[in-house]
Fold each of these.
Amino acid sequence: MDLDGCVYVGEEPTPGAADALKRLRDLGVKTLYVTNNPRKTSEDCAEMLRRMGIDCDLDDFLTVGEATALYIYSRSGPSRVLVIAGEGVKVYCEKLGHKVLGLNEWEQAEYVIAGHDREINYEKLKAGLRAILNGAVFIGTNPDVTHPGKDGLEPGSGAIIAPFKVMTGVEPIIIGKPSRIIMDIALEKLKMNPSEVLVVGDRIDTDVRAGKSIGADTALVLTGITKESDLEKIPSDLKPTYVFKDLRELVNELFSNSRN
């Protein structure tokens, strides 16, 4: 299940989210929250959900920061990384033993990780550009060009990744949804097969596409990016298995015959 636009928007839960997620937990339905937000750690996500009255454990989360650090480790072990992304990426890189470089250390970078960064500036653009041209592997946390904020759309990770693509001509390795990389890590964490999983989110281009990439059923909720007026424009190969107004309707429809 996605978080931004699905469980909450900004600092507010979506309608009926707390009750819906409580019911899933009471029914013993395992929920793994998979988020493309590179600023947050599992601890950050858990704290936010608990403030909203939603019970959760740290193992219930997989962030794109954790997935990025795991991917780099699986590829080349502890590595030197230049992070131009949110704090969550840096935290997980350090946890796995990667060395997070300063901007003036760009020549040492084996990887450049670009993603949502509210402090993006000219010096960061320059350091990332030079490191990629110097041979560092270009990693993009996720392609979302926007994400829902409490008062409207905000720039997303894709908006930070794009300048590096334009400047270098290099395509990044994308870790977050809709990439299979984060989805395969999620399946491994759940110890489940795609046939046992329902992928839930508010975006066709990331959440639904990610679910389809692993062959899982998908559910679109209309509390975030995708609106009801967008449904008729969805390409046939990306139509979700289910469409629901919100999480409350999802749980009511799919678990109406379930008993606690």
Amino acid sequence: MSLQQILAPQLQQSLHLLQVPTLELRSLVQEELQQNPLLEEIPKDEPTVEIESPDGETVREAEPEKEAVTAEERAEFKEEFEVLAKLDDEWREYFSQTNTVRSRSPEQEEQRQHFFDSIVQQESLQQHLLQQLNFAALTEERRKVAELIVGSINDDGYLLTPIEELSVSSGIPLEHLQEALELVQTFHPVGVGARNLKECLLVQLDRLGKSESIEAVLVNQHLDDLGRKRFPEIARAMSLSVEQVQQLANFISTLEPKPGRMFTTEQQQYVAADVVVQKVGDDYVVLLNDEQIPHLRISNTYKELMASGDKSNEAKDYIRDKIRAGKFLIKSIHQRQQTIYNIAKVIVERQREFLEKGISCLKPLTMAQVAEVVGVHETTVSRAVANKYMQTPQGLFEMKYFFTPGFETAGGGAMSNTSVKEQISKLIEREDPMKPLSDQEIVAILKEQGIPIARRTVAKYRNELNILPSNLRKTY
């Protein structure tokens, strides 16, 4: 025996609703509407009134119906309930019959297959290569060898598995694999099938007719120095000027280091603002985006049916459970929206200067500070802002964006580390490419602006911004 803390199912549901974004919440509510016959969505054109709940929260409800339900309608409701009470078992029985397949005519089956074949999907790199392989005049045996090479190429277009290893594992002679690799390297995209970056660039130069050019010599002999921008060392080794090496490097930079990148499928993520901040006069107003969330209520039909006494205990229990589940869902949604609203108000009050002037004026803010003001636990704030977005006059931001540690300036003020990163980024954008700023020089400039910061912190922020060190940013 052991003592464990277990969250009740209703509490788990409430925490889940608090954490999910608006679009996902809409899907969950729609799913609950289908499962719970006692829940119904309030039409948008139906007039609503604001009432105060027992715990002091303001809740929107539909206006009460003006006409009473007649005895004839009540009888229809009873008949409807008897159908709904059996709905769960009937659907379970229906879906359990997975082995029952409706017979289709050959024409219907052909139309169905044509529909699935017509779904547009982005072509993968392997599909693109296999399509080119079909036009090559190969024997069946050589085609299978080439298909093995194609199947071993990764998404970037590289063959990272040594062909010696492929030969041992497949039992195919090494010379046959080498011939197939040379064939695949002639396919589009140019550079596909290369085993490393050097070979990839050399294949592209060869396709451009530059296999014996000075660019090919530079790639073949000085690729490491080229990546580190050691142009003076390369110039001395190749008896060239630094300016000539810079020009060669500029041309090589136009080549594609990842040939398979054009076939990479990246899923687009669509987001909807959970909170909208608008300026009204001199104040900023916080508005919740409720348009995407269905407004729910318990059907009056089943409320009256529950009040009548002419039904079994099983029916009463069914209605009571569904009403309880529906009320808890409605309360959880209202509580979710109220929590997000309270947190957003604190963010807006704290980040007013950001709303006025932009990222450079973002102030440091922690979830613990917001939790103390709102009166909730810090983990509740973390769940509430997860995957939530705020539309501000400065643009659309994830709510987590506003929670950052900060620095104390020389004047006694506070500055967010995001603002410091913005300052570093602007300094590097305005620097002289011939004389890029070192990390120590950036430290000195920020210190003059009243921002005390260590050099290692500047290096850390520069890496987070994906900015190269000064020696790699220098141009000649």
Amino acid sequence: MSLYLLIPACLAAGALVGFLSGMLGIGGGLIAIPLLGLALGMSQQMAQGTALVMVLPTVLMAVRKYNQSARIDLGVAAAGAAGAVAFTWLGAQLALGISPVLLRRCFAVFLACLGMYYAWQARRRGRARAAQPAREAAMGAAAGPSRTHAAVAPGAAVPRRPARPLGRVQAAMLGVMAGTMGGFFSVGGAILAVPVLTTVFRLPQTAAQALALTMIIPGSCIALAAYAWDGQTAWHVGLPLAAGSLMLVSSGVRLAYRQPERLLRAAFSAVLFATAALLLLQTAG
């Protein structure tokens, strides 16, 4: 494909990827990697290295927008980032040392497992919402007429359990796991951290996405350096993708704050399943 066609196509694709990454908090590379493999025939390593060129500016923009809506605990984020840095390099070296087909299949399995987790989360929240009116009626009947009139209106949001404290040591341990995965798959850091933050520490989905993206910034720089040093980065593709992604990432973040968490989890799960299917399709032949 000539540059006259390639650059506009990358700008358009980057804009779409940026919007989705801002809305779902996935950094963009998750969507770009299989597209680069299918559309341009890149190996898994080359696709991951090229996607990192786009990921960094997109993540920085998304974190800025998230921080404007809800302040990120920079101390906790810094502890997680510190734990991720050294292990990101290790994960990248492991990825660069195996066959592209094996790496692509590992990526597909990883995303499918995460997709099942998010589908389960969305289904569980749906059941909790459906059961809420019955629980409120039972509690009101047990407490008497005065409590019955104070019940929450049907259709209201399911009350959230209070968040658990996330210390810097815990954040550093999470950073080690996220860094290793982020180096190996180039996008796994935030994807791994978000479900841990929402399930174990009970953070809201948007807060977890903001913190996870902040934690992976230094590690993403390390991963990009490793892939570029090994010659697995197509800058002429990654740079226009990055420029396109910056156009719409802020719109995606704004949309994320207007959507119910169950919808965000379901959308995240759908993207993961679709990406896994694309990756397996590439290795089927």
